[in-house]
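Worked Example 4.2. Read the sequence first, then its structure tokens.
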Amino acid sequence: MMKLSVIIPAKDEEETLPRVLEDLNKTIPALEGYGVEPIVVDDHCRDRTAAIARAMGARVVENARRPGKGNALRAGFEAATGDLLMMMDADYSHRPEDMPAFLSAMREGVGLVIGSRVFGGSEEYTHVRALGNVFLSASLGLATGRYLSDALNGFKLFRRDVFTGFTYTSRMFEIEIELIANALRKGYRVVEVISHERARAGGEMKSRVVRHGTRFLARIVWEGMKGVKPPVPVKAGLEGATKEVKPTTGQ
């Protein structure tokens, strides 16, 4: 049986985490052939997030580094024991019921699966967020040769060696870019599946468009300068599309 670790970074999410874990626990029995390890990363929480996670059966890992989504995810990835690692947000925006589609897309040669809100819709998108996502996803395509509709979505599934094969340095949200670049360096295909983003169910939004957008762009430039080894031609758009595009080196 293959093991799947689901890593949920959380910063003061006592309002929303119970709903996330409730939906996850309902979804797990449908994931036939997978042993699931739910992990909640306590990112210096000041509320009952950790206690709630333990009470609902999740393993709790503390982020011992500086606060930040990237550092929290790295702590979770380091502690995870799964063959596959999935990351989802603790604010109830990502739907655990979409997980079977991610797992189905993890075929031979695929190393990273990303949920696309562009195709699945979002209840959180403002015009500013949407334009920023389009610009940054296009910039990543120019830098790496991989054009994705929603590179910044934090709902991702990837093979363990995408993390263990590299030294990660991202502290904040820009870890989304670092994961994609390293999956490509491994020679893996990166594909997208339809995923719907719900509105945050409570608490405070942690993402800040300008500040985090700047960090995203700086990381894209850095990964492009480092270079990305292009794998075999990949299918454009969502997994299952038929059109193929030739990759560029991004250098």
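Now turn to a second chain, presented in exactly the same format:
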Amino acid sequence: MTLAPTDAASRRVVFHRFGGPEVLEIEHRAVPRPAAGEVLVRVAAAGVNPVDWKLFSGEPMHDPYERSLPSGNGYDFSGTIEAVGDDVTGWRTGEEVFGGLRYHAQADHLVIDPALLVRVPEGLPLVVAGALNVVGRTAVASVGSQRIGAGDVVLVSGAAGGVGILTAQLCVLRGARVIGTAGPRNHALLRRLGIHPLAYGDDLADAVRAAAPGGITAVLDTVGHGTVDLALAMGVPADRINTVADYEARSRHPVRGIGGAKAGARELAMVAQLIADGSVELPIDSVHPLEDVRIAYARSIAGHASGKIVISLTPSVGITPTGEFAAPQRVTSAGSATPFRASTTGASSG
């Protein structure tokens, strides 16, 4: 990638050391120029994912992600093609697109191979498209790992979270009966989506047995917290359990661990169309301006989100109503910090 010979500023989130949300800063650079085979995307919205904060924290991870400093931040994005490089065919300026580009998504502009992009279908807001890449691919792959269909009774853990809520709805679309664990404040949402909600707690096994007296045929674990061990204790075969969260349990049991790496642009396009058609929903927990990126990640780390947390990079992607949430300081455009009260919704944990 080369930089355009211009003084025009393009913001991006970076970190120069590992740690909590306080390591995130906003820097300015010249607007990048697409090389041959690339397009320039003006980013509108960028999703927040747990993998992001695991990466900038320096936390050891099972997956071999490359990490170096300094680094950009974020993976999911949506936006509009602003320029097309040489040798690019089939794409034009002005098209709305979404996708993923690790370490580069939280920026006003990014350059990318268009093979990694998906067109935003009519009816899908950019704020939702910008949060879809990781959760969409992960949900499709997880459901596909068990070939869920009519007659299945499926337990989905974390059913109100970003991955869980799509996973559960895709199972419902396939004709399965779905039981989902979630915090009590999210139970009404799950019921509306055709999912039988259960609260977390020491009596979860008894609650599952009462909700599914004929037994559970498959378990799709999106949060860990002992779900795999619970499923095995209830007699669910190991090959009918898929976890995208509990690597330790996978080391002890022959359960599956199929996630987003097994799904690509075609699967993303399918999920995007389902959302645009109204067949499934991807709830948005809160939308934050780029300057509040630390606040957005503090909310994600605290586990208080119901649905997806999104960063807005353009005025067309609005900010959510003000709510009170304890969070780190707001980042100024120069990278320094000033005291600030969060602008988030007060949702409960998924």
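Notes for the reader: Residues 1-7, 321-350 have pLDDT under 50 and may be disordered. The chain has ten helices and 19 strands.
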